[in-house]
Amino acid sequence: MLDKRQKYLFKKKLDELRKIKGQHTELISLYIPPNRRISDVMAHLRDEYSQSSNIKSKQTRKNVLAAIESIMARLRYFKQPPPNGMVFFVGMVGEPPKLVAEVIEPPMPINIYLYRCDSQFYLEPLEKLIEEKDVYGLLLIDRRECTIGFLTGSRIEMAAYLTSRVPGKHKKGGQSQRRFERLTEIAAHEWFVKAGEKASKLFLEKENLKGILVGGPGATKREFVNGNYLDYRVKKKIIGIYDTGYTDEFGLREIVNAAANDLEELDVIKDRRMMQRFLNEVRKDSGLAIYGEEEVKKALEAGAVEVVLISDALEKYKVKARCKNCGYEVKEIVEKLDMKCPKCNVPMEILEKKDIVEEYAELAENSGAEIEIIGRESEEGEILYKAFGGIAAILRYKW
Ligand SMILES: [Zn+2]
User: Fold this and answer.
1) Helix%, strand%, coil% for the chain, nearest 5
2) Which residues surround ligand 1, an ion (CB under 5 A)?
3) Full-prediction pTM beyond 0.70?
């Protein structure tokens, strides 16, 4: 599954492809699922090639044939598709026509085979792939029953229902009160172990599990959570404990309703907390809060940064560009890609281009810092973007 950064980059890539328009129906999108044989794809492309030779417009024909040739040339390097399949976006774009050729390995397996020639690239299957589908684990427990379920998007499903043998409140005749209580505690412990094992197994198996909600009436749920009954990885994912009246399937809906506000804001809340920490340091004038591209970069290179805060609304790139005329080269962060040579004022050729978030994510990685991509939806996100130029950091120490 994609983390926030990968998702950001993938969306950016799709945004770029979406902006590309062909003059005519001459942009090719080719989706190849992992189980498709390359030789079959090649045969199909040869077929498309011969059909495209009949296209009336000379320019369109030329462009389509060039695109197909380009795909076939690249496909020859593959014995089989990558594990998640691959997608080609190829076409001649602009005036004079320039070949755009993107090969994308999707973050999750694609299961369609599709060839399309159109005036724009066909992106829907990839867009669907990264649509937010967070999964939350649901766990309801008291001393009698335990229900485990999942919330996917807005769908609630039950995954397991267990019942206990913990005796009720009333002891059987002949037992002393102390003995009865001891037996009850032993039975409760065993019940928690059983429920904990089942829940841990189901939650660990689930892909894309973003958090876990625990519910139930009374104090039992906390007793269960505070004891060591859940795998530590599962325990770390608990995002809230809620009171519910029921611990059966009915309780699943109850707990989702109880947690609705928290779920909605989860990412936003995380962003907000981080920004508040930053703003707090700014206010205290502690010297631990810095901002600006250069400042943050220097601190990262010195290894002084704990966490980088970067706005997802920045439309900037780190580029390497060269002047076609005099050969002058620059490496810098820019907003617009139509750069002109400072010496002879002719358009420069972009040799390399990297999204600014990716650039700083790599810098952060190399210096052991964390990076938080902050959405602009929250008030704090807007402050980061507007007041701090979209990039800031909290330092480990003053330097
Ligand atoms: Zn120049």
Assistant:
1) 40, 25, 35
2) 323, 325-326, 328, 341, 343-344
3) no
